[in-house]
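B., you asked whether I could sanity-check this one before it goes into the benchmark set. Here's the sequence:
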Amino acid sequence: MATTCTHLDQIRHVTPSARGCEDYLEIGDTWVHLRLCLSCGHVGCCDSSKNKHATKHYHKTSHPIVRSFEPEENWRWCYPDELFMET
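And here's what the prediction gave me:
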């Protein structure tokens, strides 16, 4: 596991794609917590949700960093470096 994120240069100013997990909103299901992709703005559910849409988005796109999309949470996760970052 890395001690420093090597993907910070891939963070963009993004607009969230939805107010909830966009994949679950399409099928009418619920999620546990939300993550915002900092490369494109995709909103997906966390790994505690049954379909893990944020992680699936990473595997599909290789967009490396998400941040929590939950009120009062201010952290990021880098998938390839497996690094949690408080901001």
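One thing to flag: The chain has one domain: 9-86. Otherwise nothing jumped out at me.
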